[in-house]
Amino acid sequence: MQRLIVLILFILNISLSNEEPYVLIVSFDGFRYDYTNMAATPNFDMLAEKGVKADGLIPVFPSLTFPNHYSIATGAYAGTHNITGNSFYDKQFGEKYSLNNHDKVRDPKFYRAEPIWVTAERQGIHSASYFWVGTEARIKGYFPSIFKYYDGLVPFRSRIDSVISWFQLPKTQRPRLVMLYFSEPDHTGHNVGVSHPDIITTIAEMDSILGYLMNGLEKLHVSSNLNIFVLSDHGMTDVSSERLIILDNYISQMDDVYINGRESHVQFDFKKDQNRYKEVFKEELRKIPHCQFWSRSNIPDRFHFQNDNTGEYLLLADEGWLITTQSDMDNGRFKLAGMHGYDPELINMHGIFYAIGANIRKGIRIPAFENIHIYPLICRLLNIFPYDSKEDAPQGNIGVLEKILIKDRKK
Question: 316 with 343: CB under 8 angstroms?
């Protein structure tokens, strides 16, 4: 009888270890690359010790939430996947996309490239999402098998409980790819900046949330085949009312230009043919302090930002400076203490990347890398073919992160 029990357990262990890998991607919005140095973070430290830690995760331009979550999902730059801001004007459709407009967020026409959950679902793999950007839209005809419409009031631990329950579903229903989103410490960073005691409290709270998640995952039978990626979309930097760039003080004909964007960067288009004003306007932009500006054709290639929606001119603030207008000032809109959206090369815009799990090497540290390289890595883990298209193919390269994988995992 005892031999029979041992044999059953042996067969069960082989069966479980031979299961295909599972992937969980967890995003802590606005978690800057160095936040773990500001507070006690034993759970993040555990990931670094037992898995892989990057020196930073480099965002795409602009270093904002929606463009970067969709870049992580697609492996494409913003100019390719079309989500070029949290809000932007789409010239093809003559409509404004905004993270605050549910109808626009759920409209698939705005989303180009192909997100990882669509790649998975197309190839017969169930996916699930708790609030990842893009999952509320039927992109290329697919939703994740399980997804939630965004509601920021849902407690973080409740989100984790749901994710744990998804991994406990019968195998035929169980998602092999799960994506989970938390809005902190971004929210606190905007409210108080990165030099305030409250951000330290929030960092510690997020470490506790991570601990709650890891404890729940350890109890699952899929844990022996699970790969976990903990990351963020961008960093954060301090701003203040003493570092404001009010466009009215420099642009003489404000009524003749469309202004898309605020804060870290702005795009301009002319409302009508303004050949007489164009040269004057360029000189006015050139004289705005604490900024860089480019015409559409001269935007740095490294931004990979140009597409049909790009404005005629791009104005980008220096780190810590905010671009605004007098009308916004009069309405009291700018009460920020922290901001992002600046040049991705600035180290304070860098986020975090940790990886741990069945197919991940242990105890290694890697240089900072662009977040577009995560998509091909997840495809490799799930054994699916990456999206390939002449028009909006991903730019991510499996060679960047292939080194963190265990090449020949023994089963």
Answer: yes
E strand map for 91-215: 95-98, 127-130, 146-147, 177-182
Q: Which H/E stretch holds residue 226? A: strand 226-231
DSSP state of 395: -
Q: Tell me the CATH number of domain 20-237+345-404, given options 3.40.720.10, 1.10.150.120, 3.20.20.140, 3.20.20.80.
A: 3.40.720.10
Tokens found for residue 279? 């040269």
Tell me the sheet residues that pair with 340.
none
| Pairing of the two strands 369-370 and 257-260 | unpaired
Relative orientation angle of helices 65-74 and 374-382, to the nearest 10 degrees: 40
Which among 399, 302, 371 has a CA at the least distance from the CA of 74? 371
Would you name the residues annotated as active-site residues? 65
Confidence band (pLDDT; 50, 70, 90) for 19? confident
**Helix (H/G/I), strand (E/B), else coil: 317:** strand
Beta bridge partners of 95: 90
Domain positions in the chain are 20-237+345-404, 244-335
As a whole number of angstroms, the longest Cα–Cα distance in the chain is 94
Q: At 373, list the tokens.
A: 């390289």
320 Rama sector, left if φ>0, alpha if ψ -120 to 50, beta otherwise: left
What pLDDT score was predicted for residue 334? 64
Q: Is the pTM of this model over 0.90?
A: yes
Mean local confidence (pLDDT), 384-389: 96
Cα 371 to chain centroid, rounded? 8
Which residues contact residue 185 at a Cβ distance below 8 angstroms, ignoring those fewer than 6 apart? 28, 29, 30, 31, 35, 199, 202, 203, 206, 236
Q: Would you say how long the chain is, in residues?
A: 411
Characterize 315-334 residue by residue with b for buried, 16 or more Cβ atoms within 10 angstroms of its Cβ, and e for exposed. Answer: bbbebbbbbbbeebeeeeeb
**74-111 residue pLDDT tens:** 999 999 999 999 999 999 999 999 999 999 999 999 99
CATH topology of domain 244-335: Gyrase A; domain 2 (3.30.1360)
Nearby residues of 158 by Cβ (< 8 Å), 6 or more positions away: none
Separation of alpha carbons 359 and 365, rounded Å: 16
Token reading at 46: 């555990």
Sequence letter at residue 395: Q
Residue labelled with tokens 């002449």? 390
Distance CA 15, CA 395 (A): 36
Contact 118, 139 (CB under 8 A): yes
